[in-house]
């Protein structure tokens, strides 16, 4: 039996080469992992850097018509002029206030509704239907109704952002609450956990991945909704600045606004991902 066992070796093509030491021990060279590999430092900036490089090269070579898309240096000069006269800072501050307030309200409401619906069948029967109805109705279709209800002031803009943001937070958090492993529920019942103990120790930690996925979507959607509402009779904000530029044919100012929206969305996503990695440090994924 010992002779048969000693002749059995792992296939070289599957585990790599094997070697024998003087004591007859065998060691296996570990093959490279099948995942995407280690994270690239500052890799999230690689894609935007390539886009900017293509923009610079195309503008310098004359491939990109400056009447269609101004050159990067023209846009940078326009941004400097807007900063010098104070217009960019004041409008950016207004947009940030609207987006942050709407985001905080939407995330809070979406999370509360997800907990009510995800932890109670009665709550699900009451809450899930209206949320799914709102999910299927585009935000643009609701703006005329919101204008009638709330006017054209700040209240209407915050309502549009809030109702847009709460949907992804609700959907993803609710889905993860409902997908908690039944064995964990049985274990909680076995050890005698209370309802609140089950929620605090099992349900909430289990729903965190879904919550952060919804939060990342919510950050992006808050800026998308902001672009829409700031072009509805607004008197301040980046969207208002872009609307005025469109009226006067100032394409460079429009591009400045688009770049700012893009950077805010990118940095917002980076911030959420950083918080997510720290909050879910216990979970090993392919992205680690």
TrEMBL record:
Keywords: Cell membrane, Membrane, Transmembrane, Transmembrane helix, Transport. The lineage of its organism: Bacteria, Bacillati, Actinomycetota, Actinomycetes, Mycobacteriales. This is ABC transporter permease. Gene3D superfamilies: MetI-like. It comes from Nocardia jiangsuensis. The chain crosses the membrane at residues 40-64, 96-116, 136-152, 249-272. Belongs to the binding-protein-dependent transport system permease family. InterPro entries: MetI-like, MetI-like_sf. Residues 92-272 form the ABC transmembrane type-1 domain. It is found in: Cell membrane. It is a multi-pass membrane protein.
């Amino acid at each position: 039996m010992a002779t048969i066992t000693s002749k059995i070796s792992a296939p070289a093509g599957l585990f790599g080469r094997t070697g024998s030491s003087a004591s007859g021990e065998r060691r296996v060279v570990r093959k490279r992992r099948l995942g995407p590999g280690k994270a690239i430092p500052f890799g999230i900036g690689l894609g935007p850097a390539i886009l900017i490089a293509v923009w610079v090269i195309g503008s310098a070579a004359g491939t990109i018509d400056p009447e269609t898309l101004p050159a990067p240096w023209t846009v940078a000069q326009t941004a400097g002029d807007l900063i010098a006269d104070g217009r960019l800072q004041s409008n950016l501050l207004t947009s940030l206030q609207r987006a942050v307030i709407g985001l905080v309200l939407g995330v809070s409401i979406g999370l509360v509704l997800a907990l009510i619906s995800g932890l109670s069948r009665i709550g699900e029967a009451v809450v899930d239907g209206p949320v799914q109805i709102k999910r299927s109705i585009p935000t643009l279709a609701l703006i005329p109704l919101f204008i009638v209800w709330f006017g054209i002031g700040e209240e209407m803009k915050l309502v549009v952002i809030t109702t847009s943001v709460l949907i992804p937070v609700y959907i993803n958090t609710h889905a993860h609450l409902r997908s908690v492993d039944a064995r964990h529920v049985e274990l909680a019942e076995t050890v005698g956990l209370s309802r609140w103990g089950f929620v605090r120790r099992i349900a909430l930690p289990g729903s965190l991945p879904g919550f952060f996925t919804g939060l990342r979507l919510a950050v992006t959607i808050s800026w998308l909704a902001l672009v829409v509402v700031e072009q509805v009779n607004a008197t301040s904000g980046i969207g208002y600045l872009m609307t005025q530029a469109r009226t006067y044919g100032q394409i460079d100012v429009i591009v400045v606004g688009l770049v700012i929206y893009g950077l805010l969305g990118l940095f917002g996503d980076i911030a959420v991902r950083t918080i997510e990695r720290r909050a879910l440090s216990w979970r090993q994924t392919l992205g680690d």
